[in-house]
């Protein structure tokens, strides 16, 4: 091969690199490990982690452990899916393209919206892009965000907005954990958009209709962040309640919590948002024989065509995780998701009662789905630390995010927590 | 005999009331009363439109979809700039270990030392590979890394000078994400023309470089597969005016173990773990776009940063100059873990060999095909090579036709019509994963297609003919977009 190319050595192939910056030594990296040795090394590292197979875990806060059917992961391992890339060549990518079309449909049905895109990185970046999209559409530059939106989502929003000249106003919560609508009314005057979470960060099911109504009167759009989409089995979808844009995290559908990623974000919205949406769309098309198939479409919004005038810089998104969510949503089906949601609701309410029975103080009185806040724990972080010894990860200490809630834990309970775990948590928190 | 064929149906049309494809854990708590437990009028009993299928029905549907797809495991996938190398199976097994997959992202530091250890170790390896010591693993993809890197530059300039400056210079050969990322970071973009040699024009740069310019964003090797030979001079010109150089690391796979961006004057860059470090592309993600930078930019890294302390590793949030958080939690850990496994299995010699073989393969294709296809920049290239359809145009054949005909011969087409500065570009990146036999087969097929273009161009115009679907009317699809299924 070298002879055909006309060079004498591999080194010579790198002659275009100026000699003084060519690396003259081997990289200082660990020596090559064989497959079994590496797996043993990784197993040892994995054993240092308090994962849900060895611990009773009550963490939620934007990443939820649910029991997905075994075939979801088996199908994800079909390598025609996972070793492909963005379906630029539709004739040999109908599998990926049709799956995305089904994803866009399932997400639209789930949230009651006209349409959905092909996925975003995660819920937090979807929320930030949803809010900035609303600023473009309303030609206004103020974003009103509820303090009951996931703290990480709010932080990402601040990061994104900082360079775009957008102003962010936070609106607090009332004693019962719901959005302070009076403060919202004030803040939303002249605002581009109101961003709230459904159910909110405290797990509270808040009625979106008054929020939508207030925003509309102020000429602002609404973005609902959804971090626990399983709730949609039990709750009226935001699109049907007049919400303009839904920025969701769909990890709950067949994607492992996996220490934070990859997860799968998505933007779903009303028709009027179509040409301002970031990210990819798959649309139906006909081939030269008139047969129906699927292609990437509306690409003139995107960076590879529009460059700096694009609706976003996003390129690679979360294709494989969107496939997991697609399969999982299809598996739950029309009634299964409601059954799953109901089981989550029941377990969380059982846990809520069990913890109250153990003398803990539920922090908020408003309705909740599968997550709630308990207070009166003194230093909640210390309590969490103490329970690790009993193989329990007891929810999220809220102090770092809400100093006024430093005595509180955010506790998530899903169908993956057996009743014995819940009872053990109640006993441990009591003792 | 014809039988009804439902194999091309949407999942929504395969539904049958009452079928189920899932099972839930046994109910071990009583039902909680729903009345009064939700706000009035918010209850939902079913998700109308969601399909109802059995497990086998679902498995057959999605397996059918997989067979209508093409991946690296199917065959050669020379999609330039995307680095479609083989994805080692070990990495998939590693990522599925329960100790990692079932680990919640907000698990306290003390109870996630193994996962933090993987992140810390990968960060150190990436610093060594690039010569850039400040690392974040948080960005979710390459473009997200670009945005993060540009934010760090912006924050640095504000801190240093009190102003972020206004402009970002970008060569006309750049990926579209570069100008989009600069724009989303609040910058105006000015394009710099490439020289006839296919590299950044140093004189054009010198002219454009003023104290209004925050940064130059460039890809090296560039999108023509050419190493920017005057890179040190380029960096000097930018630095002399107080600007920074952002390197798009999409093509780092050409340089691993051979040259380090930190050594040739790059201040900050992102890496695509899904390109250089073999994590699967997943049909369009997930990616992972770590950012590496010079020490002076370390204070601006997004939070959290993984730091080593006497009590073990921890996530550090107390970073007053940080650009802030760019993603929930701490990055696409599953991709970080796969990349870590990849580097550990290769070691220093193995990883350098990936760059060597990638460059060898791409140069081999250039010399083998240059009699049949126009090579706009016929010189030593790095990991990819650009051809054009210039010769074939005489027969009415375009790049699109060549690409579609390749499908009939069992190959995934190269990247087409990019970079924009080459008319009818075919951007071929074989990667190190292809052996000589496969390269020879690709050469033979490309030569045959060149011959067909001369003798039977109609064959190319009709291609592909071996696929489940032929060419689509994409313009019609965009005019009247149908973006979802709806119940009849």
Describe this structure in words.
The complex is a heterodimer of chains A (431) and B (488). Chain A is an alpha/beta fold. Chain A folds into 2 domains: 56-69 and 335-430, Aspartate Aminotransferase, domain 1 (Alpha-Beta Complex), CATH 3.90.1150; 71-328, 3-Layer(aba) Sandwich (Aspartate Aminotransferase, domain 2). Helices cover 37% and strands 14% of the residues of chain A. In chain A, helix 4 (70-76) runs antiparallel to helix 12 (319-357). Chain A starts with a helix and ends with a helix. Chain B is of the alpha/beta class. Chain B has 2 domains: 90-344, Aspartate Aminotransferase, domain 2 (3-Layer(aba) Sandwich); 348-474, Alpha-Beta Complex (Aspartate Aminotransferase, domain 1). Chain B has helices spanning 55-67, 89-95, 98-101, 113-130, 142-161, 177-184, 202-208, 231-240, 333-369, 390-393, 399-408, 436-455, 457-462, 474-479; strands at 134-136, 167-171, 188-192, 213-219, 244-249, 268-271, 291-293, 305-309, 312-316, 385-388, 415-416, 425-428. In chain B, helix 6 (177-184) links the parallel strand 2 (167-171) and strand 3. In chain B, helix 4 packs parallel to helix 9 (333-369). Chain B is globular, with a radius of gyration of 25 Å. The model of chain B has no long low-confidence stretch (mean pLDDT 96). At the A-B interface, helix 1, helix 3, helix 4, helix 5 and helix 6 of A face helix 1, helix 2, helix 3, helix 4 and helix 5 of B.
């Amino acid at each position: 091969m070298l002879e055909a190319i006309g060079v004498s050595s591999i080194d010579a192939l790198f002659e275009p690199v100026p000699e003084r910056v060519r690396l003259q030594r081997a990289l200082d990296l660990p020596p090559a490990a064989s497959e079994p040795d590496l797996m043993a090394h990784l197993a040892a590292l994995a054993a240092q982690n308090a994962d849900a197979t060895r611990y009773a875990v009550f963490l939620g806060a934007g990443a939820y452990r649910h029991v997905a059917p075994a075939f979801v992961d088996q199908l994800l391992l079909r390598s025609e899916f996972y070793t492909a890339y963005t379906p630029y060549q539709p004739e040999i990518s109908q599998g990926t393209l049709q799956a995305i079309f089904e994803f866009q449909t399932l997400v639209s049905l789930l949230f009651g919206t006209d349409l959905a895109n092909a996925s975003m990185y995660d819920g937090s970046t979807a929320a930030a892009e949803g809010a900035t999209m609303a600023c473009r559409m309303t030609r206004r530059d103020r974003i009103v965000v509820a303090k009951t939106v996931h703290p990480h989502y709010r932080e990402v929003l601040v990061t994104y907005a900082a360079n775009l000249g957008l102003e962010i106003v936070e609106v607090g919560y009332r004693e019962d954990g719901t959005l302070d609508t009076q403060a919202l009314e004030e803040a939303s005057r002249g605002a581009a958009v109101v961003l709230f979470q459904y159910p909110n960060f405290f797990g509270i099911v808040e009625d979106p209709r008054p929020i939508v109504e207030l925003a509309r009167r102020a000429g602002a759009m609404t973005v609902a962040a959804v971090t626990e989409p399983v709730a949609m089995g039990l709750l009226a979808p935001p699109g049907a309640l007049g919400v303009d844009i839904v920025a969701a995290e769909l990890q709950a559908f067949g994607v492992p919590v996996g220490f934070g990623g990859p997860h799968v974000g998505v933007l779903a919205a009303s028709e009027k948002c179509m040409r301002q949406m970031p990210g990819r769309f798959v649309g139906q098309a006909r081939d030269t024989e008139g047969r129906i198939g699927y292609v990437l479409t509306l690409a003139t919004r995107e960076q590879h065509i529009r460059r700096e005038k694009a609706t976003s810089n996003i390129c690679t998104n979360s294709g494989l995780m969107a496939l997991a969510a697609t399969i999982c949503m299809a598996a739950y089906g029309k009634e299964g998701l409601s059954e799953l949601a109901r089981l989550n609701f029941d377990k969380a309410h059982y846990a809520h009662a069990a913890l109250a029975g153990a003398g803990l103080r539920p922090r908020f009185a408003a309705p909740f789905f599968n997550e709630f806040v308990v207070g009166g724990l003194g230093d909640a972080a210390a309590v969490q630390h103490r329970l690790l010894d009993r193989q329990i990860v007891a929810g999220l200490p809220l102090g770092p995010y809400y100093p006024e809630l430093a005595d509180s834990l955010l506790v998530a309970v899903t169908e993956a927590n057996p009743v014995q775990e819940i009872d053990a948590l109640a006993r441990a928190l009591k003792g | 005999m014809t039988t009804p064929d439902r194999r091309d149906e949407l999942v929504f049309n395969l539904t049958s009331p009452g079928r189920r494809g899932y099972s839930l854990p046994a109910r071990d708590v009583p039902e909680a009363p729903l009345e009064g437990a939700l706000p009035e009028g918010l209850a939902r009993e079913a998700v109308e439109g969601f399909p109802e299928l059995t497990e086998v029905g679902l498995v057959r549907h999605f397996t059918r979809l997989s067979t209508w797809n093409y991946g690296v495991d199917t065959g050669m996938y020379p999609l330039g700039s995307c680095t479609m190398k083989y994805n080692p199976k070990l990495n998939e097994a590693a990522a599925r270990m329960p100790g990692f997959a079932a680990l919640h992202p907000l698990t306290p530091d003390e109870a996630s030392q193994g996962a933090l250890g993987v992140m810390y170790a990968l960060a150190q390896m990436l610093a060594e590979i690039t010569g850039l010591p400040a690392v974040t693993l948080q960005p979710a993809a390459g473009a997200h890394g670009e945005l993060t890197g540009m934010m760090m530059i912006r924050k640095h300039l504000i801190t240093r000078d009190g102003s972020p400056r206004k402009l970002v210079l970008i060569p006309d050969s750049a990926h579209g994400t570069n100008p989009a990322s600069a724009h989303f970071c609040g910058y105006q973009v000015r394009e710099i023309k490439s020289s006839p040699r296919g590299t950044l024009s140093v004189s054009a740069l010198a002219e454009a470089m003023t104290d209004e310019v925050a940064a130059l964003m460039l890809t090296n090797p560039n999108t023509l597969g050419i190493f920017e030979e005057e890179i040190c001079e380029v960096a000097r010109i930018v630095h002399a005016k107080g600007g920074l150089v952002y390197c798009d690391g999409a093509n780092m796979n050409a340089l691993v173990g051979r040259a380090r961006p930190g050594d040739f004057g790059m201040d900050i860059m992102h890496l695509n773990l899904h390109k250089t470090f073999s994590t699967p592309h997943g049909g369009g993600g997930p990616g992972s776009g770590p950012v590496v930078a010079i020490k002076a930019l370390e204070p601006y890294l997004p939070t959290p940063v993984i730091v080593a302390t006497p009590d073990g590793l921890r996530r550090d949030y107390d970073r007053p100059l940080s650009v802030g958080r760019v993603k929930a939690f701490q990055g696409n850990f599953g991709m970080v873990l796969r990349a870590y496994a990849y580097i550990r299995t290769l070691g220093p010699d193995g990883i350098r060999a990936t760059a060597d073989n990638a460059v060898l393969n791409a140069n081999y294709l250039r010399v083998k095909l240059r009699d049949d296809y126009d090579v706009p920049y016929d010189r030593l290239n790095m990991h990819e090579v650009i051809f054009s359809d210039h010769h074939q145009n005489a027969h009415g054949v375009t790049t699109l036709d060549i690409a579609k005909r390749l499908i009939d011969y069992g190959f995934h087409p190269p990247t087409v019509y990019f970079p924009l500065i080459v008319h009818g570009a075919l951007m071929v990146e074989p990667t190190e994963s292809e052996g000589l036999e496969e390269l020879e087969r690709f050469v033979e097929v490309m030569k045959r297609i060149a011959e067909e273009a001369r003798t039977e161009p109609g064959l190319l115009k009709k291609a592909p003919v071996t696929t489940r679907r032929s060419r689509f009317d994409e313009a019609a699809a965009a005019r009247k977009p149908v973006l979802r299924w709806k119940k009849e």
